[in-house]
């Protein structure tokens, strides 16, 4: 019944020219403000991680490792809420692989269990183990890695051999260095790297503890500098802010492109549905730390944030302003109502995954072959994300912002082409 | 432009355009039926004689039929992840090889019960798992289990193909043709149905250009011919050609008016592909061969641009979100 009235409203919208309560420029300002606050929060938390890593490397202990893990988990909360800025903003999309590339062949970085295997068709470097090898060959060239620096990670190792799974930098590389491989399969339990992997004396486990520490420090320093750069892009006068404000329709389209692409292709498809269908715990987004329920939850929240024009910062303060929701409501109240309802429904589904995981039914257990309850939880969220994507498409239509795609003869899902 | 498009949107009160009708009746339904028949024949062949060399022709025929509809990634192919199960590719983490190896090493008993086998990781099912059994030399001396695994995969493929055929024929065709009807929450307007099919067309062209060609091309200094789609069964270029033929058929059905520019672009792309004479796309490994593959990739991108100008604009739709939007 509601759907029929939506159709009626859609038709009514054709005869009445809606008065816009909020201007597109104001909505874009709110969007850029949320981005700026989100990346600043991510930067603040990454600096906390950097301090915890320095403490760990200065005086390795079980407590220090645990403290570093805790700051990593906190750091994911604001960062995941920024993922909605990826698709649609070329500046973010081109940069994102540096900080959140996933999935990774972790054998590139450090020792792995024998069950991991070695090089594959796709990745000849899957078991390179930089921590253990100060000198190695890459594409026929000898690489001097006697000192592990941010420049080595970013310039030579990251995506080495043009293989995306060669993730040498970012949150997930750091996650692997803090937790180690999760060898529990689809049973309960995360990675369990011993703190002695960072011990500086005879207690050193796993070999090359000093090099492992160098790697962890280089990767953390790089994360901080990368986030610092991105926060600047969204500040007043920054390029990312200027890019969305430059053309109002293109800017509004970028918001919706980010919402739809993250909801559907990325989160519902790549990260959630595929994991269930492969029954593979390594398909978990935060697979070493078993934090996947949170990374999915805050991805979903980020989509809702930019639509409703509000973001709760890590200090509890609220960034809010004229919202895309207002623009859509002015064009077609039914489409706005349906989209808000679907965003909320998604948060309920993602909240159920989060609460089940926090109570001990961890995300990797949900992925186990034949685990009907886990599959139902995950697929419930996938369906909610797919439903919300259809509403996002309707919002694109009622706002008419896909016109720019016609004019450029380019597709909505090809932001690079639209924006260059 | 804007006013014209808004007006066009308002005039579209019919439940389906002629193009949508043509896609359903002349394109989708015959193709899902063809795939169901091919998969059933593969299943029957495996039941009778599961040896690799005798199964290969039925395997190739099933893959050919799949290429005829794999671009229709909406509805029944998307639901329950059927398309992913039938053809899990790209496999960026090498899961097919590992999963098949594990099934054989453990002699996983799921192969003996279809409902249990349907729960196995998609990396151990579908066309790419079967390709390993039929085209990689079997050195583990476990022919008896491999035979049962091949039969299980063939049976699973046939089941999926029948489900797709039934879902299209009894449900999804009606949804596309009766947009806005009571109970049809998938398509509220004819424009949404057109947009979904147009999205399938553009996504299909992008997939062939960016994945089927782009993945083996890799980077100029790091080509990766070993990741070409279905290289073990000798199909990389064949899949490119069959997908272009299927997408051309979709474009012609979907358009409500002549599309000379798009037709010409398809003809050029297909001619370029056939002239490659490089079934495995192995040429990407050297600069001149890579250039020829890159030319083909550009031809496909030009086809996409032509389709956007001629079909997208006429239908008043842009590309919707699609499953390949992620990274």
Task: Indicate the multimeric state.
Answer: heterodimer
Cα distance spanning the termini of chain A: 43 Å
Main sheet record of chain A: 2 strands, antiparallel
Question: What's the domain count of chain B?
Answer: 2
Compute the average pLDDT of chain A.
90
* Number of domain units of chain A: 1
CATH architecture of chain A: Up-down Bundle
Shape of chain B: globular
Signal peptide (chain B): 1-18
Organism (chain B): Marinovum algicola
Protein name (chain B): Imelysin-like domain-containing protein
Domain Imelysin-like (chain B): 28-304
Please characterize this protein's 3D structure.
The complex is a heterodimer of chains A (420) and B (327). Chain A is mainly α and 420 residues long. The radius of gyration of chain A is 22 Å and the shape is globular. Chain A starts with a helix and ends with a helix. Chain B is an all-alpha fold and 327 residues long. Chain B has 2 domains: 143 residues, Four Helix Bundle (Hemerythrin (Met), subunit A) (Up-down Bundle); 147 residues, A middle domain of Talin 1. In chain B, 66% of the residues lie in helices and 0% in strands. In chain B, α2 runs antiparallel to α3, α2 packs antiparallel against α8 and α9 runs antiparallel to α12. The interface between A and B is large, with 64 and 55 residues.
Draw up the topology in text.
The complex is a heterodimer of chains A (420) and B (327).
Chain A: H1 2-15, H2 24-58, H3 62-81, H4 90-100, E1 135-138, E2 141-144, H5 150-157, H6 171-179, H7 209-234, H8 239-246, H9 248-278, H10 292-308, E3 310-312, E4 318-320, H11 324-331, H12 333-358, H13 363-366, H14 372-399, H15 403-407, H16 415-419
Antiparallel strand pairs in A: 1-2, 3-4
Chain B: H1 2-11, H2 18-48, H3 52-67, H4 82-86, H5 95-106, H6 114-117, H7 126-135, H8 143-177, H9 190-217, H10 236-254, H11 260-276, H12 287-315
Helix pairs in contact in B: 2-3, 2-8, 2-10, 3-7, 5-7, 7-8, 9-10, 9-12, 10-11, 11-12
């Amino acid at each position: 019944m509601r759907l029929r009235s939506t159709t009626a409203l859609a038709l009514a919208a054709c005869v009445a020219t809606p008065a816009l309560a909020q201007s597109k420029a104001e909505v874009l300002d709110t969007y850029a403000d949320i981005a700026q606050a989100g990346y600043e929060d991510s930067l603040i938390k990454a600096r906390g991680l950097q301090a915890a890593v320095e403490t760990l490397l200065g005086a390795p202990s079980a407590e220090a490792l645990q403290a570093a893990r805790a700051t990593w988990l906190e750091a994911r909360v604001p960062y995941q809420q920024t993922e909605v800025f990826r698709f649609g903003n070329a500046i973010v999309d081109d940069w994102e692989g540096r900080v959140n590339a996933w999935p990774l062949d972790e054998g590139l970085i450090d020792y792995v269990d024998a069950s991991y295997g070695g090089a594959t068709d796709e990745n000849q470097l899957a078991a390179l183990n930089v921590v253990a090898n100060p000198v190695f060959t890459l594409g026929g060239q000898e690489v001097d890695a006697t000192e592990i620096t941010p420049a080595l990670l970013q310039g030579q190792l990251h995506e080495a051999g043009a293989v995306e799974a060669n993730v040498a930098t970012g949150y997930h590389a750091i996650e692997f260095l803090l937790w180690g491989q999760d060898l529990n399969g689809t049973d309960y339990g995360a990675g369990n790297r011993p703190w002695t992997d960072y011990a500086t004396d005879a207690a050193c486990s796993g070999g090359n503890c000093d090099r492992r520490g160098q790697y962890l420090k280089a990767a953390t320093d790089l994360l901080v500098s990368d986030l610092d750069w991105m926060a600047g892009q969204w500040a007043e006068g920054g390029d990312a802010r200027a890019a969305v404000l430059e053309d109002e329709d293109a800017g509004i389209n970028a918001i919706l492109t980010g919402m739809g692409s993250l909801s559907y292709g990325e989160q519902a498809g790549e990260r959630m549905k595929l994991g269930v269908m492969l029954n593979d715990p390594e398909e978990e987004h935060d697979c070493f730390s078993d934090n996947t329920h949170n990374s999915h939850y805050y991805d979903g929240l980020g989509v809702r944030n930019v639509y409703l024009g509000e973001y709760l910062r890590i200090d509890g303060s609220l960034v809010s302003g004229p919202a895309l929701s207002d623009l859509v409501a002015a064009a077609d109240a039914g489409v706005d109502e349906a989209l808000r309802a679907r965003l909320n429904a998604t948060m309920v589904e993602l909240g159920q995954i989060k609460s089940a995981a926090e109570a001990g039914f961890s995300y990797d257990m949900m992925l186990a072959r034949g685990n009907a309850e886990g599959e139902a939880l995950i697929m419930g969220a996938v369906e909610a994300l797919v439903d919300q994507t259809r509403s996002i498409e309707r919002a694109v239509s009622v706002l008419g912002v896909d016109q720019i795609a016609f004019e450029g003869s380019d597709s909505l899902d090809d932001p690079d082409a639209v924006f260059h | 432009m804007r006013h014209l498009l808004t007006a066009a949107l308002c005039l579209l009160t019919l439940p389906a355009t002629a193009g949508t009708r043509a896609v359903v009746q002349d394109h989708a339904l015959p193709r899902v039926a063809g795939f169901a028949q091919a998969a059933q024949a593969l299943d029957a062949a495996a039941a009778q004689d599961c040896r690799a060399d005798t199964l290969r022709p039925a395997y190739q025929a099933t893959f050919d039929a799949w290429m005829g509809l794999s671009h229709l990634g909406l509805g029944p192919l998307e639901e329950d992840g059927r398309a992913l199960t039938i053809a899990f590719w790209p496999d960026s983490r090498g899961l097919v090889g590992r999963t098949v190896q594990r099934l054989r090493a453990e002699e996983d008993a799921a192969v003996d019960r279809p409902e249990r086998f349907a729960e196995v990781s998609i990396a151990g099912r579908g066309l790419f798992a079967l390709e390993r059994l039929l085209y990689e030399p079997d050195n583990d001396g476990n022919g008896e289990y491999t035979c049962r695994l091949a039969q299980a995969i063939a049976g699973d493929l046939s089941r999926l193909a029948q489900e797709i055929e039934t879902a299209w024929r009894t449900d999804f065709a009606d949804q596309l043709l009766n947009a806005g009807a009571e109970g049809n929450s998938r398509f509220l307007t004819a424009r949404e149905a057109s947009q979904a099919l147009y999205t399938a067309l553009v996504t299909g062209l992008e997939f062939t250009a960016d994945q089927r060609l782009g993945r083996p091309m890799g980077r100029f200094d790091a080509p990766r011919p070993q990741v070409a789609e279905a290289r073990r069964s000798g199909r990389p270029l064949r899949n490119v050609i069959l997908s272009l033929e299927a997408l051309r058929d979709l474009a012609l059905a979907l358009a409500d008016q002549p599309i000379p520019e798009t037709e010409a672009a398809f003809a050029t792309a297909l001619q370029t592909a056939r002239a490659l004479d490089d079934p495995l796309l192995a040429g990407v490994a050297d600069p001149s061969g890579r250039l020829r593959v890159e030319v083909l990739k550009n031809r496909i991108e030009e086809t996409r641009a032509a389709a956007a100008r001629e079909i997208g604009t006429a239908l008043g739709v842009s590309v919707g979100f699609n499953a390949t939007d992620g990274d």
